[in-house]
Amino acid sequence: MDEYWTARVNILSRRYCGMLGAVVGCVVGVVLGTISGIVPGVHSNTVAGFLAGVSGPLLVLFGPEGLAAAIVAMMVTHTFVDAVPSTFLGVPDPDTVLSVLPAHRLCLAGHGEEAVRVSALGSVAGFVLCLPLFVVFMLVLPPMQGYIDWGVGLVILVAAGLLVVFSRSPGWAFAVFGVSGVLGVFSLGYAHFSVGVFGVGEVLLPLLTGLFGVPVLLLSMRSVVEVPPQRFSGLLIERREVIWSGLRGAVAGAVVGWLPGFSSGTANALLAIRRDGDFERVDARGYLVATSAANTANAVLGIAALYAVGRMRSGAMVALGSLELPSLSFVVLVAGVAALCGYGVTVAGSRCVPVLMRVSQRLVAGVVLVFLVGMSFVFCGPFGLLVLAAATLVGMVPGLVDVPRIFCMGAVMVPVMLFTLDVIRF
């Protein structure tokens, strides 16, 4: 009898320790996702790589479920909170580069807080609406994976063609898309040279920072825009628009979350397509809902791809795949809790608008610029600075020839297209 109760106590002890580790891991993940979301230029993949690098002691502290919860919670929370710097600091995360203009448009109209809240609402919509797709993808798509892999390159080719054809200036759009594509092929082809303090770094950090972040910072330092007083009087978007835009974004994010080589930035580029090619006329609120929904849905459906076919679509999924995978229901539950926490943190962050607006934007731009250059060097070394400089030169062109900067996404789309069509190998 004593042996029976001793065994029961040991089982219960392990169970409650596992639960405690999972709860602590989830809290740690939300905190890390908040930090990576607020700090410009820091992607969730970077934090996930750090967690994977120190997984040994973390496994002892939190257990496998706790560490998995930290990675998933960090990834989902990041997709919410990164709306804050994208709106007020003008330095986008790679997944939110195309939401900068609409967010800034609202900010310059005095609705910066609303822009952040709309983005948070879009992320919630994306999470909720992608759950049915999650189930469908898990059941239907695994047997079709071979055909999907074969057709990805053709899909990207069609998507790129649509972006160029529907632009206001197809010639310049094609030139920017092509040059940025060549730069992307070069950067990814020689990514093994991007050796920083922590080993080989993610070359996409200096590449996308130079294309989308540094040009905006340089422009803001040269000509300081007077930001009007910010006011919040509710969300000026109808419920049906939230549902429709959220559904569009969720579907786009779900597709790129499953397809190899795509990112949320690719989905957002497709969401920006207009028949008249005028990105400036895109409805700001609806587009923010759609892009935020795409970012969150992409993160969640990346989990489905990992569990269903063993494919790792992001750095966070690579880190998660290196662990003993917990049950799928546990991971989805953690993602749901992180989504609720991320929404609350983002709404709270939007209330800091008056403080942010009192800070000199030129000073903020200068500090962030120095920070990003330092990040590129720390994580990618001298090669990262070379890529950053070249990408900045290319990223300045759209502003000079008056074409949307979305065509710089060729830096990602062209390499993936050539790789999936078996033209090049990295």
TrEMBL record:
A Pfam family of this chain: TctA
Record domain DUF112: where: 25-409
UniProt entry tagged with the keyword Transmembrane helix: yes
InterPro entries (alphabetical): DUF112_TM (IPR002823)
UniProt keyword list: Membrane, Transmembrane, Transmembrane helix
Transmembrane segments: 16-39, 45-62, 120-140, 147-166, 172-191, 203-225, 285-308, 328-351, 363-391, 403-424
UniProt protein name: Tripartite tricarboxylate transporter permease
